[in-house]
Design a protein that fits this description.
Elements lengths: L2 H9 L6 H4 L3 H43 L4 H21 L7 H19 L4 H9 L10 H30 L3 H10 L2 H18 L16 H8 L1
Helix pairs in contact: 3-4, 3-8, 5-7, 7-8, 7-9
């Protein structure tokens, strides 16, 4: 009797590990700092000041992430993104172009998530399956596959929202507004997408389904019956 209540808390928090893989609070804050530094530097010192502030902040963030044990590839990719954004702005001479890489990344992400749903390989399932050590076993569960597909639309919408906000501001060269939007649409949107996609998954799974950590294989009818009772 005491064993059952003790297992329930273990099952509950596990899906929250998706926050780290999909861009948790710490990663979102780190990614927001260089653009904020760029906006402030641009206001105080023009394009050169903005680029210098962004690169220095990006380097500091990369060093901090390295010291706290983040994977080298993740650290280098983050710093490289800042450097490329800075080079684009310097090349064009237009401060708003610092955000062009971010716009392109969000547009590409929206397309990738949408396509993944259409081809029945929803990216939320891929990420969750990796996080839970399931590889592709989740795809053999029709209910879980359907739930991941529906929930992946939440993430697709989050990228579409960013593009819809960023593009007009970029076209009109609104650097300060882009800086504010970049911060406002990072962690808050990620948090909303995490919460929204989790609600969609829970509502999509049928009653009695054992949950994300236990994909149901239709071929194993006896095992399914044993789990759901």
């Amino acid at each position: 009797m005491t064993g059952t209540p003790q297992r329930q808390p273990e099952d509950g928090p596990r899906p929250e590990s998706l926050a780290d893989l999909l861009g948790g609070r710490r990663g979102a804050v780190d990614a927001t700092l260089p653009p904020l530094a760029f906006g402030l530097g641009w206001v105080l010192g023009g394009l050169g000041g903005g680029v210098l502030a962004a690169v220095l902040t990006g380097t500091a963030v990369a060093g901090w992430r390295w010291r706290r044990g983040d994977r080298p590839r993740s650290v280098l990719v983050g710093l490289l993104a800042v450097c490329v954004a800075a080079l684009v702005a310097l090349r064009t001479g237009r401060a708003a172009d610092f955000f062009l890489l971010q716009i392109a990344a969000n547009a590409a992400s929206a397309l990738a998530w949408a396509v993944s749903i259409v081809v029945r390989w929803p990216l939320l399932g891929v990420v969750a399956g990796t996080a839970l050590g399931q590889r592709t076993r989740w795809r053999r569960d029709p209910a879980l596959l359907r739930a991941y597909g529906r929930a992946s639309w939440v993430w697709t919408a989050s990228y579409v929202l960013r593009v819809a906000v960023f593009v007009p501001l970029w076209l009109y060269g609104q650097v300060v507004a882009l800086t504010v939007a970049r911060a406002a649409l990072t962690w808050p949107v990620i948090a909303a997408a995490l919460a929204g996609s989790w609600v969609v998954i829970r509502r999509s799974l049928p009653a009695g389904h054992p949950g994300l950590r236990h994909p149901v294989d239709p071929a194993d009818a006896d095992g399914v019956a044993a789990r759901t009772e």
